[in-house]
């Protein structure tokens, strides 16, 4: 039994750690810090955020370019990700407190079934737009390997900060201070 548990844990760790493109893992990032991850060819702090258009979990469309002029909190998550589940109440509070000053946008990635993501978002009362990244192109453009990750994007479309860990209230305040 222990062998099975260890095997499952190892496969899970590797699938979350592996970027799926090159077979190499991204550099380790400090937990609970706002910063950047120097990986060539992906979104970097200080650079324009890659645009995307995704079908939302409720059947609409979310486009980052449609939000130009509004600061954005862009969060990458999956329904099976325990830290993602832990930070959803923090995102809900941020969305509730936005009052039009910024937008919260979720990108569901690495879920095999859209229905899993939709059920989770419904259970967590996610009122913000959540797009389904079926082909993982948005995840790859942003260089997201581990989940969750959050980008704080200025109104001009440039990335102000990247959080490489589970959000808490302080990390949200620090990120919002950089974009609002």
Name some characteristics of this structure.
180 residues, 6-stranded mixed β-sheet, alpha/beta, two-stranded antiparallel sheet, 5 helices, disordered N terminus
Give a brief outline of the structure.
With 180 residues, the chain is an alpha/beta fold. 32% of the residues lie in helices and 19% in strands.
Summarize the structure in words.
By secondary structure, this protein is of the alpha/beta class. About 30% of the residues lie in helices and about 20% in strands. It has five helices and eight strands; from the N terminus they run H-E-E-E-E-H-E-H-E-H-E-E-H. A six-stranded mixed beta sheet has the order 1-8-7-4-5-6, covered by helices on one side. Mean pLDDT is about 85; it is low at about 1-35.
List the helices and strands and how they pair.
Blueprint: H1 2-17, E1 34-35, E2 53-55, E3 61-63, E4 72-77, H2 82-97, E5 103-108, H3 114-123, E6 129-132, H4 137-141, E7 149-153, E8 159-163, H5 169-179
Parallel strand pairs: 4-5, 5-6
Antiparallel strand pairs: 1-8, 2-3, 4-7, 7-8
- The average pLDDT is 84
User: From the helix content, strand content and strand pairing, which structural class follows?
Assistant: alpha/beta
Spatial ordering of strands, largest sheet? 1-8-7-4-5-6
In one word, what is the shape?
A: globular
Helix content: 25-40%
Kindly provide the radius of gyration, computed on alpha-carbon positions and rounded to a whole number of angstroms: 16 Å
Query: How large is the share of residues in beta strands?
Result: 15-25%
Would you identify the regions where 5 or more consecutive residues have pLDDT less than 50? 1-33
The largest sheet is: 6 strands, mixed
């Amino acid at each position: 039994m222990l062998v099975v548990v260890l095997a499952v844990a190892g496969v899970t760790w590797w699938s979350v750690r592996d970027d799926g493109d090159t077979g190499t893992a991204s550099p380790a990032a400090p937990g609970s810090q706002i910063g950047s991850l120097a990986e060539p060819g992906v979104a970097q702090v200080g650079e324009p955020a890659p645009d995307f258009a995704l079908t939302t979990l409720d059947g609409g469309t979310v486009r980052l370019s449609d939000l130009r002029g509004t600061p954005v909190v862009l969060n990458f998550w999956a329904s099976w990700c325990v830290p993602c589940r832990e930070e959803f109440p923090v995102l809900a509070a941020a969305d509730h407190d936005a009052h039009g000053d910024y937008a919260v946008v979720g990108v569901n990635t690495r879920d095999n079934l859209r229905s899993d993501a939709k059920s989770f978002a419904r259970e967590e009362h996610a009122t913000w737009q959540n797009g389904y990244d079926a082909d993982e192109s948005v995840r790859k453009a942003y260089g997201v390997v581990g989940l969750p990750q959050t980008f704080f994007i200025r109104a001009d479309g440039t990335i102000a900060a990247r959080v490489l860990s589970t959000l808490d209230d302080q990390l949200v305040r620090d990120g919002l201070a950089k974009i609002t």
